[in-house]
Target: Acetoacetate decarboxylase
Amino acid sequence: MYRENKPTLIGPYDHPDIYPGPRPSSSFLYHNGKAHRIEEKENVPVEKQVVHYAQGDDVTGTLAFASSEQYTVEELVGKEGLSSIEDRIPLLAYGSNVCLAQLRYKFSLNPDLSDFLLYYRADLTDTDIVAGSFLAPYGALPAVIAPVKGAKTEVWVTFVDREQLELLNRTEGSYVLREHQNGKLTLKTGEQFERVYAYYYPHAYLRKGSFVRFMDIPGESKLPSMWQADLLNELKTMIGYGGHREEFIHELRWDGSFRKKMTTMLNGLDETFDHPDWVEPKGFHTLKEMTRSHK
Model:
């Protein structure tokens, strides 16, 4: 089972215990199949932040290894001939979309599409990241954003072009995009945006009368926290599965009739909610179409 010290080379598609995946310790650029650390300088806009660009092949890049090669974000964008940061859409990442192994997998689905993605750490208040009441294709209970008054949770803001947004949409199943305009999200650098978007699905797993947050995700919350491995162990017991654990996980992923049985059980443990901070968007705005400020 995977709990603490989850390996960075394995993603949820390899084993559901990994979900939502190990969290990088810094903002970063994901590009050419690896991570490049961003310095997180306060009161500096995202496009002016300094990137420590990795040259090796390891997916952790300069999150783990030093490099003398440095550029600002806008310099890299120009060097790669990509759309400017101001022409991109701010999108929240909070589940496995910040897991490096998962990113490698998702972009392998369309290798002709640029994988240039910025990930800026941020704090989000009155929201927590909790387990959903349904199964992902790989057998994990995936994350959803839920209303939790007084909570503060770590999330990540990416800046995607419209092609990248379409690719991500195809991998997000029943989730829909919602918009936040309440000023409760702040990057670690202090920057705030008029709007930010996130994938939203208002169905949480209710355990002993409470939502459950993930141990992997830093934050301050009144909710209990659990590892995905322990959530799956509890589900195995609840369904009365008699085989060993890896057989259970195999059937979660590949046995349609067993998944249907699990889905029926989870439907009985579902709490449907509405999050007042996240509303239906009337369009998707790029950075140049919205106001920006520093807190």
